[in-house]
Specification:
Elements lengths: L2 E5 L2 E3 L5 E8 L8 E6 L6 E6 L6 E3 L7 E6 L4 E6 L8 E8 L11 E2 L5 E5 L2
Parallel strand pairs: 2-11
Antiparallel strand pairs: 1-3, 3-8, 4-5, 4-9, 5-6, 7-8, 9-10, 9-11
């Protein structure tokens, strides 16, 4: 069964850091473009970052640029999202997904194999 599993979420104070992991089971991430998305209560799911299969092409939404860093370790079949300088507005459920394209698309419809999500709460 093809599945992505997110982990690493939690409660953190403003200015704090978390590292999310996106692990694959049932398939290899080696040749897959992977995106990170988030969905806050009452808001649409938004793409915040994406990384190409070899990590040479990376996308960040303006809202996280300079604070979040996406990376991948294909040997571990895992993609990471390092989140620094967290703000209350970063509070959301964070998801990873695999793209059906060989590039970082900004269309949510181009992504599939969604994980179940991991909750990130930024609050004092």
């Amino acid at each position: 069964q093809v599945q992505l599993v997110e982990s690493g979420g939690g409660l953190v104070q403003p200015g704090g850091s978390l590292r999310l992991s996106c692990a694959a089971s049932g398939f290899t991430l080696d040749y897959r473009v992977i995106g990170w998305f988030r969905q806050a209560p009452g808001k649409e799911r938004e793409e915040i970052s994406c990384i190409s299969s070899r990590g040479f092409s990376i996308y960040y939404a303006d809202s996280v640029k300079g604070r979040f860093t996406i990376s991948r370790d294909n040997a571990k079949n895992t993609v990471y999202l390092q989140m620094n300088g967290l703000k209350p507005e970063d509070t959301a459920v964070y998801y990873c997904a695999a793209s059906r394209r060989n590039y970082c698309s900004t269309l949510r419809a181009d992504f599939g194999s969604w994980g179940q999500g991991t909750q990130v709460t930024v609050s004092s």
